[in-house]
Amino acid sequence: MKNLLIIGLLMLAVAVNAQDLEGSWKLTEKNGEPVVKEEYIKIYQDGYFAYGAKSIEGNKFLGTVGGEYSLNGNQYTEALDFNTFSPDEVGTKKSYNLNIQGNKIIISQPGGQRALEVWEKVSDSKDALTGNWVITGRKVDDKMSTMTPGARRTVKILGGGRFQWIAFNSETKEFSGTGGGTYSAENGIYKENITFFSRDDSRVGATLQFNFEVKDGQWHHSGKSSTGAPIYEIWSKYTEAYKPNK
Fold first, then answer.
1. What is the band of 8 on the pLDDT scale with cuts at 50, 70, 90?
2. Distance CA 99, CA 113 (A)
3. Structural element, H or E, at residue 81
């Protein structure tokens, strides 16, 4: 009966474009089984995606996957920049069928009738910081240090009221860390509510507050870290600042 329902959803589904995907999504079904013991939150924004997974009981970090994506009709392709579940897949491309039914995304193998994943939309809300960003500057000892993102980079994707940052090296397939959760950006105040953190599960539930300003298309982020140390960072739009190694 469950497979018949999935087939029905696929028959009713319609093609989507990249803009339809933008926002945050929650995984509700995987390989025909409901997802109840883990939480997977996926963000699509500006041609990039990332998702982080944690256990619901204990908030244990489970893993993260992300990279660029594209849509051609119903053909959906992911080009992986990081994948802690299967690091060997970094640098590869994977193609699927992707359809939308109401507020759900249905992902299946090309030509397949069974859904591999069903994602339900959380939100498509936007604000001044909605976008995919990469760090390009950090103040150290009152001196701004600039950087040009290459294979080693730190990305921060915000969309649908959710955020996730990821530090990784797409060339060596090294993963350095990630964290994410909900956020707000209003009246120059940026707040993060952490729902998963790869380096320390005890940080889940913490709220951090910073000042923000978008100047000349760059996000200026300042305040104090969780340890009380002052921070000042500059984040640039990923598509404009990322310079892949040739």
1. very low
2. 12
3. strand 75-83
Closest CA to 72 of 106, 95, 46, 100: 95
Q: Alpha-carbon distance 176 to 153, whole Å?
A: 10
In the chain, where the domains are located: 2-123, 131-241
Cα–Cα distance between 96 and 107 in angstroms, integer?
Answer: 7
* Distance (Å, whole) CA 243 – CA 193: 31
CATH of domain 2-123: 2.40.128.280
**Local confidence band at 45 (pLDDT 50, 70, 90 cut-offs):** very high
Q: Whose CA is closest to 135, among 116, 113, 155, 150?
A: 155
Distance of alpha carbon 144 from alpha carbon 97, whole angstroms: 45
Strand ranges in 37-74 using DSSP code E only, listed in sequence order: 38-45, 48-55, 61-72
- Residues whose CB is less than 8 angstroms from the CB of residue 106 and which lie 6 or more positions away in sequence, other chains included: 6, 9, 10, 13, 98, 99, 100, 115, 117, 118
Top-level CATH class of 131-241? mainly beta
pLDDT in tens, 117-143: 999 999 999 999 999 999 999 998 889
- Residue 76's φ and ψ, nearest 5 degrees, are -115, 125
Locate tokens 């992902």: which residue?
107
3-state secondary structure of 203: helix
Asked if 2-123 and 131-241 have one fold, the answer is yes
pLDDT at 91 over 50: yes
Residues 195 and 183: beta-carbon distance below 8 Å: no
Q: Is the pLDDT of residue 15 over 80?
A: no
Instruction: State which H helix or E strand residue 12 sits in.
Output: helix 2-12
CA atoms of 213 and 166, how far apart (whole Å): 21
